[in-house]
Specification:
about 170 residues, mainly alpha, Arp2/3 complex 21 kDa subunit ARPC3, 6 helices, about 0% strand
Length: about 170
């Protein structure tokens, strides 16, 4: 019984570090690795993937923490990420509960929906600051969505490897 508790604690700590690094990488590394001028939703991808494997209480806390960290590290004046991350993590978990054999498809669908929502929010902010909404959508939101889809594949595989090593029996 103690061995299971140690594995659970180690899994949660490593997952926390993983999401912490994902949020910081999105704000520090990915702005220098732009694709068509866009930055992927790396932390969003990681949070959604983790929620497909982790216990509900744990991923709720981690999703909110990753969202706050992302907003804090990114210098965002809007505190939208914690709420968005929590809603998307809950949606991904619910989708996986309903379709357990389609875990990767559920994670991809929720991540794309969340990234699209985040991209539209970014386009609205840019249009309020003077850019045309259509131009912001075409030149910022669409590349961000595509880049996030590309980044999703290695993030999902890394997350799956993490939970395969720890053999989370929850799912």
């Amino acid at each position: 019984m103690k061995k299971a508790a140690v594995y659970r604690g180690a899994r949660i700590i490593l997952t926390s570090v993983y999401l912490f690094i994902a949020a910081l990488a999105q704000c520090s590394v990915f702005p220098h690795i732009r694709l068509l001028g866009a930055i992927p939703d790396f932390a969003l991808c990681a949070t959604v993937c983790v929620s497909c494997f982790e216990e509900k209480r744990v991923f709720c806390v981690l999703a909110v923490a990753a969202g706050f960290l992302l907003d804090l590290a990114g210098g965002s004046a809007y505190v939208v990420s914690p709420v968005l991350f929590l809603i998307l993590a809950a949606a991904a978990s619910a989708a996986v509960d309903k379709f357990p054999s389609l875990r990767s498809v559920c994670a991809l669908a929720v991540m794309l929906a969340g990234s699209a929502l985040s991209s539209v929010f970014s386009a609205v902010i840019l249009s309020v600051r003077g850019a045309g909404f259509g131009d912001a959508l075409l030149h910022t939101s669409l590349p961000q969505l595509l880049y996030s889809a590309v980044v999703f594949i290695p993030v999902y595989l890394l997350t799956k490897l993490h939970y395969t090593v720890f053999k989370n029996e929850k799912r």
